[in-house]
Amino acid sequence: MRVLAAMSGGVDSAVAAARAVDAGHDVVGVHLALSRMPGTLRTGSRGCCTIEDSMDAQRAANLIGIPYYVWDFSERFKADVVDDFIAEYSAGRTPNPCMRCNERIKFAALLEKALALGFDAVCTGHYASIVTDADGNRELHRAAAWAKDQSYVLGVLTTDQLAHAMFPLGATPAKAEVRAEAAARGFSVASKPDSHDICFIPDGDTRGWLAERVGAQTGEILDRDGAVVGSHEGAHAFTVGQRRGLQIGTPAADGKPRFVLEVRPKDNTVVVGPKEALDIALIAGSRFTWAGLAPADARTPFECEVQIRAHADPVAASAVVAVGPTGGDELVITPHVPLNGVAPGQTAVVYVGTRVLGQCTIDRTVSAVPVAL
């Protein structure tokens, strides 16, 4: 097969590209330039897609012996990931930019271009596995190394995208094995730190970054009964479950700390309450997709597990496609035990065993605790 290897400049994508070559594929490496003004050097393990990363990727491609190119996807990245991130926070939701990047850049924009150029698949360094069932249908599954499993952030992939995806690291039992292989191949990135945090906010100051783009506007902090207990300088700076940074002038009657329960951007208010009020009994989203074949009858409740963060533990649940409050279909997920601190805008990924069945962007939640405590 002709394979386009997405090379970020990290150890995982370098080894994935090398394994694709070892498997006999005709491989071309490509680095995605996602910023118009990339930093020259990384700051520790923060950020990615810098000039240094591009050079690291090129050195790896040269050692592997494959052609290497840099493609400018900065405009698409800004529109589909960065602007979406700002819009979601402005609407009071908590987005996951890594999900949007995989959905709209790596397996939409990049895959579209790859197919147009005659490639058969896009190869990445994600830790996930693709399994083909007895009827030839492709399924997305967790990686062998659960501690490194990245199937959650790939939950947005569709059946068509899975048909052209390749994850050579999926069966690798440990990240240490990948680093050892990289060192044996002579890759300079063998000991390079993993990137983390939001790549376009390399200093990690999400609140300050948003304030510059959304602006600050003083608003009220309310308790669950609607009483004013403090003030803030911009609702966009808060997310559900947050405890630190609350400027509350009125202490709670029980003396316990309070947490952000809801962000209301329309009237620029933030609702706070006790920790137990963060328990969620139901989540639902109208923006849902299936990774591979959909359930035979999704309108009949089925048992599954749900994961709401990349590194969260899966929770046993039941799910069903049903008509929501606005009249459209929703994927409704009811965990067997309440989830904690779930915010609209997050992604809920549904699993059956190790298989990723599908996902939804959470539009609404139902608290497990009534208002009157």
TrEMBL record:
GO terms for molecular function: ATP binding; tRNA binding; tRNA-uridine 2-sulfurtransferase activity. One of its GO terms (biological process) is tRNA wobble position uridine thiolation. Residues 209-273 form the tRNA-specific 2-thiouridylase MnmA-like central domain. One of its GO terms (cellular component) is cytoplasm. Residues 286-362 form the tRNA-specific 2-thiouridylase MnmA-like C-terminal domain. Its EC number is 2.8.1.13. It is found in: Cytoplasm. The keyword Nucleotidyltransferase does not apply. The active site is at C101 (nucleophile), C199 (cysteine persulfide intermediate). CDD domains: MnmA_TRMU-like. It catalyses: S-sulfanyl-L-cysteinyl-[protein] + uridine(34) in tRNA + AH2 + ATP = 2-thiouridine(34) in tRNA + L-cysteinyl-[protein] + A + AMP + diphosphate + H(+). ATP binds at A6, M7, S8, G9, G10, V11, D12, S13, L32, G125. InterPro entries: MnmA-like, MnmA-like_C, MnmA-like_central, MnmA-like_central_sf, Rossmann-like_a/b/a_fold. Keywords: ATP-binding, Cytoplasm, Disulfide bond, Nucleotide-binding, RNA-binding, Transferase, tRNA processing, tRNA-binding. It comes from the Bacteria. Residues 148-150 are annotated as: Interaction with tRNA. The record marks H126, Q346 as: Interaction with tRNA. The keyword Repeat does not apply. Belongs to the MnmA/TRMU family. HAMAP family: tRNA_thiouridyl_MnmA (MF_00144). Catalyzes the 2-thiolation of uridine at the wobble position (U34) of tRNA, leading to the formation of s(2)U34. This is tRNA-specific 2-thiouridylase MnmA.
